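hey so u asked for the seq, here:
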Amino acid sequence: MTDFKPPLSGAAQDEAKELRPKFNADGLIPAIAQDEATGEILMMAWMNDEALRQTIETGEATYFSRSRGKLWRKGETSGNTQTVERILIDCDQDTLLLKVTQKGPACHTDRKSCFYREVSRDGALSFTGEEA
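ran it, structure tokens below
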């Protein structure tokens, strides 16, 4: 795969028929992983251009670790892999949605999803009931 073309301006980007991801100032784009079968949101991670390229080419979710400064393929150490069934991109191409088949838990806490806490209207935090 060649380099991604640069984003367009305004409505031209919204209607573009080619992939023109809009990476942030750090060269990253957010990627939300969603269970293809259930629709449950599993996690959010960052991709750089190489992570996106590898994900497209291999069909396996590859992300960029900001803390380690390197690529990581989901499940490379835990075995909890994400097979990418579909990749969607939002209107202005600055956020990705990966529809995945998740093997094992998605969260490093050993939970199915990283979104296991809820914030109430008074700002209190509670667990949704999913145990690690």
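The helical segments are 10-14, 49-58. The two ends are 39 Å apart (CA to CA).
lmk if thats what u needed
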